[in-house]
Amino acid sequence: MAKVLCLIAMFVVMLGVVHSHTYHSGSCPSVEPMPGFNMKQFLGIWYAIQKTSTASTCVIYNITVGDEPGEYRIEQTSQHFALGLTPLKHEYSYTGEISVPDPDVPGKMRVKFPLNIAGSSSFTVFMTDYEQYAGLFSCQKLGFVHRRSATLLSRTRDLDKIFVDKMRTRLSSFNVDPFDLSIIDQTGCPKNTSQGVNIHIDDDTFSAHSIANVFRKAGEKIGDGVEYAVDAGKKLYHKVSDDDKDIASTVATVSSDKAKNMVNPSGENDAEWVRV
């Protein structure tokens, strides 16, 4: 049952990519980044208080320095809304890469997540005081339409209404409807996720090496099953042979040479032949 739930988990995670965004015609709205933005002060843990069209709970972001200068990593951890409908204990984490195309405008960045097959999207910090609240806006052009997402962040699991209203008003000034935002439940969030299933999606998840490991492990399981079946068959065959040994000896006596030929037509003694 647990294996079935794990497969369901991976399936609903793939489907969940379409959430947390709204779709609109035309180009992305112009959302101005915060002047004088300082990424170093912005790093660390942020709790999502409100986010565009999501039913996920306990959403947390951890922004850290990347491997290369001007690159950063963002990990989103949450309780996935679809998995929450199952009895499966889980933690869903999703890691992306943040880049700064123009160092002169550090608040206007790009982010790329593994499951976003359309490529990177904008990642704009439109306001923050670094210590209490922050507002993010992300948008991606898709042909004649675009998809957008806004997130209101807090350094703690709750945020004073005055800061929430301040960020929602700013979004409205950019022609982004703040009523598209969903309130994220940050209560009763798991503090220890060592039990259950931890689903982590990053750049290595769908690499050739990772996929090969999946098939390799599957092959090992199939091989183990075959070996088990063969061993069970041998035990059954020898048991039947032992039980019938005395009966067979009373029916006929066969010369050793002839017996060898009946057991192994090729004359080799390292294999048994069972005729049906």
SSE blueprint and pairings:
Blueprint: H1 2-15, E1 22-25, H2 39-42, E2 44-52, E3 57-65, E4 71-79, E5 90-99, E6 108-112, E7 121-128, E8 133-142, E9 145-154, H3 161-173, E10 181-183, E11 197-201, H4 208-251, H5 256-263
Parallel strand pairs: 5-11
Antiparallel strand pairs: 1-9, 2-3, 2-9, 2-10, 3-4, 4-5, 5-6, 6-7, 7-8, 8-9
What is shown here, in short?
By secondary structure, this protein is of the alpha+beta class.
Describe the protein's architecture and organization:
By secondary structure, the chain is α+β, with helices and mostly antiparallel strands. Helix content is 30%, strand content 30%. It is built from 5 helices and 11 strands. The chain is globular, with a radius of gyration of 30 Å. The N terminus and C terminus are likely disordered.
